[in-house]
Design goal:
It is built from eight helices and six strands. It has helices spanning 2-8, 25-31, 64-77, 94-102, 114-117, 133-141, 145-154, 177-188, and strands spanning 19-24, 41-48, 54-59, 85-88, 106-109, 122-123.
């Protein structure tokens, strides 16, 4: 559904939807068959020997491999780096998210994994993949909440809950005994 909505366009905006996955390309193409065209899916590619075993890796689309795939897509589509929206959920997305952010693109995390959520410009948590459209509609299209709710309803979905929060991640530990002994002496000076 996300692909169909983005492919049909959103009021004055055009989006091309691609999948960059660290998984084998055959697995992703099979999982997304009939949903996303095979030529819009980039994954790890292998060369197989006569017995069907992996002979060698042709392309690794993980880590920096996603950055290379993004750069290829950007050149192919002839778009500026600031027109890239990247959605990621794991450690294999970190290099690509940093690359997109540095070049003024827009990044969205779809998991609570701290290392990904801290890098992304927005984080969306939902059981429905369509939720990733919310920051796109807000930050790129420039819509307010009423327009976004109306948009989802026009596609047969009701936004039941919508909470926006700012999250602080803290790790606290007991102060060392050396520090706690030194503190009283410092106050006597």
């Amino acid at each position: 559904m996300v692909y169909k909505i983005l492919d049909s366009g959103i009021e004055g905006h055009r989006f091309d939807f691609y999948v960059l996955s660290a998984a084998p390309v055959e697995v992703i193409q099979s999982a997304l068959e009939g949903i996303i065209p095979a030529d819009h899916i980039y994954g790890t590619e292998f060369r197989y020997n006569a017995s069907g075993e992996i002979d060698m890796i042709v392309r690794a689309t993980a880590g920096y491999g996603k950055v290379a795939a993004l750069d290829q897509l950007q050149a192919k589509l002839q778009i500026g780096p600031d027109h890239i929206v990247y959605v990621g959920d794991g450690s294999s997305d970190i290099h690509a998210m940093l690359h997109v952010n540095v070049r003024d693109g827009f990044t969205i995390a779809v998991s609570e994994r701290k290392h990904v959520a801290q890098i992304a410009k927005r984080t969306v948590l939902s059981d429905n993949a369509l939720a990733v459209l919310v920051p796109i509609l807000e930050n790129i299209v420039g819509w307010q909440r009423p327009q976004i709710r109306e948009f989802f309803e026009s596609h047969g979905f009701l936004i039941q809950e919508w909470d926006s929060v700012r999250t602080d991640w803290l790790t606290l530990r007991p102060a060392s005994s050396l520090y706690s002994q030194a503190a009283p002496e410092a106050t006597r000076l």
